[in-house]
Amino acid sequence: MHIELNHYLWLSAFMFTVGVIGVLVRRNAIVIFMCVELMLNAVNLSFVAFSHFLSDIQGQMMVFFVMTVAAAEAAVGLAIVISLFRNRQTVNIDEINLLKG
Amino acid sequence: MTLTLITFLPLIAALITLLIPKEQKQTIRLVSLLAAVGQVILAVVIWQNYNPSLAGVDDVSKFQFVERAAWFSVELGGYTVSADYLMGIDGLSVTMVILTAIVALVGVGASWTIEKSVKSYFVLYNLMSMSMMGCFLALDFFLFYIFWEVTLIPMYFLIGIWGGKNREYAAIKFFIYTLVGSVLMLLAIIALYASVIDPETGRNTFSMVAMANQQNFISGSALAPSEGNLLRALAFFALFLAFVIKVPMVPFHTWLPDAHVEAPTPISVVLAGVLLKLGGYGLLRINFPIFPEVFQQFAWWIALFGVISIVYGAFCAIAQTDFKKMVAYSSVSHMGFVLLGIAAVNSLGMSGAMLQMFSHGLLSPMMFLLVGVIYERAHTREMDKFGGLAKHMPVYAGFIMLAFMGNLGMPALSGFVAEAFVFLGAFAVEQTRLLSVIGTLGILLSAAYLLRAYKAMFTGERKPNAAYEVEGHHGEEHAHFHDWKGKVDLDGREIALLAPLAAIVIIIGVYPAPVLDLIMPSLNRVAEILSAAANVAMK
Amino acid sequence: MALHDLLLALPITFATLWTILLIVVEATAKRAQLTFSLTSVGFLILITMMLFPSEQGYAFGEMLRLSPYSQFANFVFALSGLLVITLSQSYLAKENIHFGEYYIIVFIATLGMMLMASAAHMVVLFIGLEIMSIALYVLAGIMRKDLRANEAAMKYFLLGAFSSGFFLYGISLIYGATGEMTLFKIGIYLQENSATSLFWIGLSLMMVGFLFKISAVPFHQWTPDVYEGSPTPSTALMSTASKAAAFTALITVVLNVSSQTENNSNWIFALSTIAVLTMVVGNIAALSQDNLKRMLAFSSIAHAGYMLVGIVAGSDAGYSAVLYYALVYSLMNIGAFGVIALIEQQRELTSASDYAGLFKEKPLLAGVMALFMLSLTGIPPFGGFIGKYKLFAAAVESGLSWLAVVGVLASAVSAYYYLRVVVFMFMREPQAENQFEGVVLNPTLVLIALLVFLLGIFPTGMLRFAGEAMKFAFNM
């Protein structure tokens, strides 16, 4: 079978959807964060695929930036999760409900 | 410069007041008094130099004391928004300016007894006084809107802080009612701006004067005067609602009794004396000249609601036991005459409406001052708690008699002239003939409630202990009828406030010509505009 | 060539270098006061820079576009940043989080916003958005010991990252559909070719990302929680400058795809539905809030709705109105949060009823707060009125009168909850004696109040500034 652009796109869309569903249904903050990372990586896949099939370098360049940003985000995000865990001894977002709404 | 000065004199007073330490209450009062006296002097200057032969209304060159300066003008990619600082006087506004100056001065006098946060009070009072004056003088709709809204804020605080027991409720009700009206006005302003061109500059304009001339509408624009333009009717009603809420017209009147009952005396004076007139003035200056054909179409309905206001307001007044509430409802009733007079669509009716505004602008402050006097002494306004006051307060009773007679339209007082003109005007037109007949019922009813009130309070025997049963509105200071002996009647300050109002009421009642001379040319012009639109509509 | 680029992008170059300077100074001196002063100086220099006309054009190989448009936006961001840090100082000291890092992070957030407003390429847009967002996550969570702040930071972070995912996916699909990432080239491509469904999906996903950032309904649920839990000065920045940045970026994108969106009834319908929902839901929900910060959160949702009206209008008048509104809104909201922050330092007072009697004890503070509330309501003669007027006038001009009607009615509803605060401050007796003793009025608040007032009376200068900004954006 010859692998076309569409195959990549469908895979990327599938991964993105898995990520979105994960964010919506999982309760553990770390897992939710992992799902967000999955979303970003799904997008990265589509970037690379587009870049390859368009013969344009910009998409691949973007991926590097996304990876950097994701790393920075992970650093800040995990710091937030840790300080929360120190104070509450839990990372289950259902139990984190001081703020009404 | 005259108009700028008369408008912003209170602002200067407010700024000076801010610099005075709040302990020096007397200085603060004197500053405001000076500003108010200055306004009256300027009003007299304007009156003396006013040339009554120029009509104004839809022609800037026939306005007087015109001041014009670019205010802001911004070009945004091919389309410009500009508003002018445009002020001027014509027959529609000149009497209102004089009235405002007088009432504002009386209001300052009535504020003399305010002891709570005097500094803030007078700052707000002066801001209100400024914006009221500005409303009557502004000819640029945007400027008018700013002034119109600015009246709202000080009024809100003045009722809300210095008012009676339910002041919060009254203040917020007043605010929301008026705000709903004014946001509708804002929409109409936006649409009008997009549709009207200033013939001199060829650009879109906020000038109310340009809007009053149908030639200045861009053909094909949203509000262009064309056959069956529904948007014009909508814009008309947006403006109409904004103004009649202020008038107030039944069924949009419910904020008024609450506001009056809770407001301190000087604020009631200003509210009844000037702010309600803004509604009537707005109808005459803005609503009808800009949308004459819509007005023609609905004139009968407007007259109908005017009559409903007259009769319903009077019935409500009859049902009141609270003196101030009765006076408030009588205001609703009397402002109904303004609507009826305007809706007659002839210069006779409209001049009656103008006169009624002027006359009510003098009589209702009198009434509220008198209510304030009795409330200050007895801490109650329940009419059946009083009796035999004529014996103990002869001067007071005399003023009350005059105010009541003026209000119920006794000949030789201003109310009579005004209401007579309204009825004659409305009767002369076939479509409002029946309504004007029903409207006369209002006079009978007002005679009923006013005389009943007089009888209850001033005749018969004094009820010395009654006031003890009343819960004091001020908490600790309970009512003490005992203290009345000797010093119950009006003091010099109160007489000084009431006497000029009374004098003008009598003078106009006997000899209304000076006022009529001022207003007639402009009203004739408005009538021309309206009838021209009617002719076009008939064709 | 490179030097020329650096000079052309001077504000951004400067902000970047200044950030490095700040970090070095803080790392070596460790004195929060010093860092604060230097950050203020940095903001002041930026503001001064924005007031002078500068060279326009593309920098760094069409990555950045410097124009009066970015200049106006940068002015708003730098001003907001400066005001926020001056209002933060005593609050941070009181909460024992007076770290120099705080100011640096505010400065970095501002840098991110500036990148968003100057972006000419999707990469810069994304980087700017992320720099801003990540900085704001930190600001939300800077009170490490406070449970509510932890929770707010967590929610903000997870939802922010989530929305970034959508935003990024949108970029990717637009890239795939047009083969370009430079915004104006996308615009050219769209003028020559018709849009594919891939493009529309991409644009929608990108819009979802934007709508999250500006907290438009139905992507607004995070807003009240985050605003309530975060330290108040951080909330002030989040609710104002970051929204303004999202709107400027949104305008940049919409301008470049305007050949597809203009007169596209689906687009207008979708966006105006969201605008209406945002205005209505925001205002209705704010009515029932007792907590002042939550009330302001819902009100900020409503204000995002008003600004969306300008976007829907789709004309230069509409966009310049959004810019102007962003400025006025930033000022008055920072002011309102500033007052709350001041009061909070004294006591943990959260609901409107806690403000009873403020006027008696601190008349000037109460007066300033009342001015902000009235301006937020949109009552003349304050800046908020001119802003709203411009927005709704733009809608009417574009034939969307019904949208203006909804907006105006919604803002009439808002009078109720804003005035409630005023009622408590002015018309109620205080709950306890001297409960506001020790609250010291920050002169910055008076300055903001003055600005809001002046923007309402003499709007010409700023309106012209905003208008120029749009003119350039259109001619480009």
What report would you give on this structure?
The complex is a heterotrimer of chains A (101), B (539) and C (476). Chain A has helices at residues 5-25, 29-54, 58-88. Chain A is an all-alpha fold and 101 residues long. Chain A has a domain at 27-95: Helix Hairpins (Orthogonal Bundle). In chain A, helix 1 runs antiparallel to helix 2 and helix 2 (29-54) packs antiparallel against helix 3 (58-88). The longest helix of chain A has 31 residues, at 58-88. Chain A is elongated and about 50 Å long. The model of chain A has no long low-confidence stretch (mean pLDDT 89). Chain B contains 19 helices and 2 strands. Chain B starts with a helix and ends with a helix. In chain B, a hairpin with a 2-residue loop joins strand 1 and strand 2 (79-89). The longest helix of chain B has 32 residues, at 347-378. Chain B has helices at residues 2-19, 25-49, 91-110, 118-137, 141-162, 167-195, 208-211, 230-246, 255-262, 265-290, 292-319, 323-343, 347-378, 389-392, 394-407, 414-428, 430-458, 492-510, 513-538; strands at residues 64-76, 79-89. Chain B has a two-stranded antiparallel ribbon. By secondary structure, chain B is mainly alpha-helical. The model of chain B is unreliable at 465-483 (pLDDT under 50). In chain C, strands 1-2 form a two-stranded antiparallel sheet. Chain C starts with a helix and ends with a helix. In chain C, strand 1 and strand 2 (64-66) form a beta hairpin. With 476 residues, chain C is mostly helical. The chains are: A mainly alpha (101), B mainly alpha (539), C mainly alpha (476). Chain A binds chain C through residues 9, 16, 19-20, 23, 29, 32-33, 36, 39-40, 42-43, 46-47, 50, 54, 56, 58-59, 61-62, 65-66, 69, 72-73, 76-77, 79-81, 83-84, 87-88, 93, 96-99, 101, and chain C through 122-123, 126-127, 130, 134, 137-138, 141, 144-145, 147-148, 150-155, 157-158, 161-162, 164-165, 168-169, 171-173, 175-176, 179-181, 221, 224-225, 228-229, 294.
